[in-house]
Amino acid sequence: MKALVKERAEPGLSLVDVPEPEVGPGEVKIRVLRTGICGTDLHIHRFDEWARHTLELPLIVGHEFCGHVVAVAPGVEDIAVGDLVSGEGHLVCGKCRNCMAGRRHLCRKTIGLGVHRDGAFAEYVTLPATNVWVHRMPVHPDVAAIFDPFGNAVHTALSFPLVGEDVLITGAGPIGLMAAAVATHVGARNVAITDVSDERLDLAAKLGVSLALNVSRASLADGMRQLGMKEGFDVGLEMSGSPAALREMIAAMTHGGRIAMLGLPAEEFAVDWSTVVTSMLTIKGVYGREMFETWYNMSVLIEKGLDLSPVITDRFPHHEFEAAFETAASGRTGKVILDWSAA
Fold it and tell me: Where is the active site (predicted)?
């Protein structure tokens, strides 16, 4: 089968022929239809310091995908050949304290699909049945392929109640855009999103946000005045990993405000902890998806009319992966999809 492989310790990927995977005990085999390019994939493509210290080569990359089930191992129930499925890319041990308590997203022994084991940028992928999410309601394959990052957005956005609240989102990348769509859909009063990319802020406007602010030209205080806000934001969703963005968010929160932080900073940086203390702010770190409550939330949001199609801006056949990665790395687009259906 064809697969995108990180073969050598250098930038780039190779589209090569590799053996088709076989179904192991408790596993499901899936014919991949679509894959989404993630920031992790860009790190691997560049082969930066994180990738050099994390990967064991050669490796089939990719973890955002959807496809049809083509085989199931004996004893696997509730998953049938022909089902359209997505996959939870965090494989957990099932035996640690958190796993045993139902907090699988907190497993300390998590293995990443496409990072620590062969991934989904291929014609076929195998996955433990416990990591397979079956789409019981109709969903377009492009949307099904991005349930993994959609889950990051939903997990972050629903960390705190949003109904009637003023919400600030810093970072209008694909996950920030999806979080904005969720916050608007579930009834936030004002949803403001900040970035320095006009292209991405234009996408945010299509999702119905109250304010899409380019902070290279206007201040957050200016944006709050445009919204008629007299106090600070109730909920902050930090999606950028930018030190300046988090500092501005902390300064713009109302007393008792709550921040969910998904963005990963590249290095340590100073935080105004005095304001965190005196304003009695709550800061919650968010990683991945709650298994599988977040997945249930995602499916219901789609079923109830949440439209993610504006977030998906570019589609490429799988063999044009270099152009796809270049587009995804530009910082000016939404989600980039690779189509494997004709492989």
Answer: 40, 43
Return d(Cα 339, Cα 182) in angstroms, integer.
Answer: 26
Active-site choice (35, 40, 194, 294): 40
User: What is the share, in percent, of the chain residues with pLDDT greater than 70?
Assistant: 100
Confirm whether residue 96 is marked as ligand binding: yes
Residue 189's pLDDT is what? Answer: 97
Pairing of strands 64-72, 84-87: antiparallel
Q: What is the DSSP string of 244-307?
A: HHHHHHHHHEEEEEEEEE----SS-----HHHHHHTT-EEEE--S--TTHHHHHHHHHHHTT--
State yes or no: 296 annotated in a binding site. Answer: no
The structural domains of the chain, ordered by start, are 2-146+308-339 (3.90.180.10), 152-285 (3.40.50.720)
- Report which residue type is found at 315: R
Q: What is the pLDDT of residues 148-169, one digit of tens each?
A: 999 999 999 999 999 999 999 9
pLDDT of 66-96, one tens digit each? 999 999 999 999 999 999 999 999 999 999 9
ω into 292 cis (within 30 of 0): yes
| Residue 200 marked ligand-binding | yes
Q: How many CA atoms lie within 13 A of 260 on its CB side?
A: 23
Output DSSP code: residue 4: E
Beta partners for residue 84, in sequence order: 68
CA angle (167, 170, 176) in 5-degree steps: 85
> Between the CA of residue 18 and those of 11, 122, 341, what are the distances in Å?
20, 9, 17
Find tokens 């902390």 and name the residue.
250
Query: 262 labelled as ligand-binding?
Result: yes
Chain position carrying tokens 């920031």: 39
- Residue that has been written with the tokens 């990963």 in this structure: 264
